[in-house]
Amino acid sequence: MSALTLYNYELDENSYRVRLLLSMLGIQHEIYSVNMLPGREEKSPALLALNPCGTLPFIEQDGTVMFGAEAILAHLARNNDASRKWLPIDGPDFTATMMWLGFAAGPLQAAVKAREVAVFAVGGHLERLKAGARAAFRIMDDHMVLRQIEGKDWFAADHPTIADLALIPSFALSRDFNIDHEEFPALRLWLRRFRRLPGFITMPGIPDYH
Amino acid sequence: MTSQPIWSPVALSNMVEPSTSTGAVVNGAELVVWRDSSGKAHVWEDRCPHRGMRMSFGFVRGDHLACLYHGWQYDTAGQCSHIPAHPQLEVPQTIRMQTFAAAERNGIIWAGATADANAALLPAERTGLVTVRSLYADCTSAKALKVLAATPLPGSADAPTVEAITENYVSLTSGPIRLLVAIQIMGEEKTALHMMATEGAPVAALARYAQDLRLILETPVAEAA
After folding, report:
1. I need a surface site. Which of A1, A58, A209, B147 has the fewest CB within 10 A?
2. Chain B residues with CB-CB distance to A193 below 8 A
3. ipTM exceeding 0.90?
4. Domain check: are B115 and B138 in the same one?
């Protein structure tokens, strides 16, 4: 099998989601560094030929391209995690895992976009995106408040899943667009727990010290 | 602006783990609430005297809080004791944090308005309490009090019996359920409610009640009428 290549931009939050799982599962891979800013290389003809969406991240292996961070996470977990914990395909936790994975790709993308507007100065309505991000964090905090009352530490199962992994970056990076953590105490504890898992790596904007 | 109570709640005790820090706003003032490795809580102004970086972004090492920016370390008295860029330097006494009194009572961390706030003014101690949650809402504390007094607790159709323990600490009772709410005035239109209940209370139902409460708290008054 040929090497897996991640098309990556170091400051891109969705690329970080995939880097994080690659690290936590210890998956061998190569990195193609995309000049997203200022080059917008992901929209170049050469890269559009690979990923017609013009988005990051995407992966290529054995001539097959897969785009979309959440799909890549599910694909990598399914093929590289013998414990079947990161993607609990056969168990009752599959439903909640997929629901929160969808939440990361849906409502939580307001946070991803808010950060892009704040950090990369790309176009967008920052206040509206921040309001969307705050609403998403509240839904997550409310969920983790109830999970904690049930004695559960993670979003979808008794152990971390790719749902937790997909949700973590937006909260960890929220200070980039001026949303602090103090209003989300249950998420603060959850982030601290996740940071202590083997293989956790940071990206610029997430402190190494904590 | 209302006068500031001597003691303000800033967080639920078990939501700030040993060796961690968090921010808290009281009447517009930014504070850092942190626990040293022995578990003792501290409340300081949320500014590093060096470059003004927020100390709540910092990290705890033993009984010191360090600034994320340049790693300046402050001991539990708020005195700077180590500057990594100048490891040999004996740090001048003048480099220190503004500190506030910190106390834990009834499952809540309280911040004093000054460093020597009178602990006798804290609410009376109660035992047998369980954590419900902290709720942050964009509303005045006056509105929060009004809505708390008017909203039935889970399992009841009637408004609860309200007892003001102090000016920012109320007890709501309905049948066997007793909910204690400590009110943190963050700003004119920002309030945090820190909730504990008596043992045996339906904690999950109370957490959902709190979640529903936020919708009422953030509905503009004209529409709510």
Report:
1. A1
2. none
3. yes
4. no
